[in-house]
Amino acid sequence: MAPDLKSFYKTVDDLAEPFIERLRDAVAIPSISAEDERRADVVRMGMWLKGQLDSLGAAMEARPLGAQPGKEHLHLPPAIIGRYPAKKDESKRTILVYGHYDVQPASLSDGWKTEPFKLSVDDKGRMYGRGSTDDKGPVLGWLNVIESHQKAGIDFPVNLLMCFEGMEEYGSEGLDDFIIAECKPGKFFADADACCISDNYWLGTEKPCLTYGLRGCNYYSIEISGPGQDLHSGVFGGTAQEPMTDLVRVMGSLVDGDGNILIPGIKELVAPLTKEEQSLYKNIAFTMDNLYESLGSKTGIFPDKESTLMGRWRYPSLSLHGIEGAFSAPGAKTVIPAKVTGKFSIRTVPDMEPQEVDSLVYSHVDKVFKSLKSKNTMHCNLQHSGKWWVASPKHWNFTAAAKAVESVWGVQPDLTREGGSIPVTLTFEQATGKNVLLLPMGSSTDAAHSVNEKLDRKNYIEGIKLLGAYLHYVAEEPMKTS
């Protein structure tokens, strides 16, 4: 029997403005984890979040994660963990939810049309601000669900475990070991029956989705050096072998203009496409216009929806990201850099094992560099990696979420995979041994990580309803392990 959610939904609507003010307060804290000078703000954000949950009666802790690797003078922001209700009800399921309270860097000079750390709501209900959709809005969604149940006088349907971190935008340093330790018998997360993460987005702008797969990411650097210092091209051009020239040639050997990875052996690692999987793409609510709107141009590689979605989700990609050491400021500077470092990543998919990908990358880069017969020196290194993840969308965790989507939005959700990586998803799955669901709040046009990041008011308020309805349907869903 479906739960009676009308009172809950009405309460969320009644509290919409206070919930937006709560988001405004959160956005105002510049919790940029990548900037050392902002570390105090990241910690302040974590403690603000803890304080909000304390005031709602949750049993919260701020767990220290130690010194930051390579920066021992700098402490990692705490993991904010907690339980609601404060005392576990043994008759109810226990759901573990995750989110992050840190954000990407942002500055008005980057091209923002509003102050990035001041929530600005336009006449169409678009709420602009850094972290609004990634991931402060979704994190606050869980707080708002708790408050709405209290104000509506509705019994909370599950035991809610919470884990909110402050380093997600900087690689979640320190978190994996913490999660693994706390999932052991008798520890904080040990009794979770399933996990839910709201840190991704709809495929388009009109239809919600449930996400059951993510690509992984192996991120590499290629360092090429030669001269003992930067050189003047008028003096040394034509007489010194230039690291930049070598690097461009090596990086040009990695991928072609149509996105085909040129490293031998990579394609052979990919799991074959089955007919059953191929059939899933046909009815997904996505058009090429959705892609063009997100791109801001018609520069997509493929002409059709199915190929585009498979290129984004179930096939690997290689992207070139930048070059350190090269002149990049406006104007002209005739310098020959003594050392340059190129950066690229490979988004991995089933069944690509990270170590096998590393081996193929190193072999290819080494072979291409040797073919140049350069007197310069080259080193190729893995900076970080996260493995791909695929869950079962037939699990009760997903079927409960699908019912919640139908209740709130009136449609059946698309079952999607994503091209991006959320490594903590795999960590939770492996550490708990339980199903993990990605339940997005925001839409594809939210511009997370970019200028003018926003969260639509409707997605925020209806998203709060969705998170709450999900918990109610989880409480009633028959226990299945598929």
CATH topology name of the largest domain, in short, is Aminopeptidase
Question: How large is the count of helical segments?
Answer: 14
Query: Under the CATH scheme, which architecture of the largest domain would be assigned?
Result: 3-Layer(aba) Sandwich
Overall form: globular
Tell me the number of structural domains: 2
Estimate the mean pLDDT confidence. Answer: 95
CATH class of the largest domain: Alpha Beta
> For the terminal residues, how far apart are their CA atoms?
21 Å
Give a nutshell description of this structure:
The chain is of the alpha+beta class and 482 residues long.
Would you write up a description of this structure?
The chain has 482 residues and is of the alpha+beta class. The chain has two domains: 6-214 and 389-476, 3-Layer(aba) Sandwich (Aminopeptidase); 216-270 and 315-386, 2-Layer Sandwich (Alpha-Beta Plaits). The chain has 14 helices and 20 strands. The protein has helices at residues 6-14, 16-27, 39-55, 132-152, 175-182, 233-236, 243-251, 275-279, 288-295, 305-313, 354-371, 396-409, 423-432, 457-476; strands at residues 59-63, 67-68, 71-75, 79-84, 94-100, 120-121, 126-128, 159-165, 194-197, 209-214, 216-225, 231-232, 317-324, 335-336, 339-348, 377-386, 389-390, 414-418, 436-438, 454-456. The chain has a six-stranded mixed β-sheet with strand order 1-4-8-5-9-19, with helices on both faces. It has a four-stranded antiparallel β-sheet with strand order 13-15-11-16. It has a three-stranded antiparallel β-sheet with strand order 6-7-20. A hairpin with a 4-residue loop joins strand 6 and strand 7. The radius of gyration is 24 Å and the shape is globular. The model has no long low-confidence stretch (mean pLDDT 95).
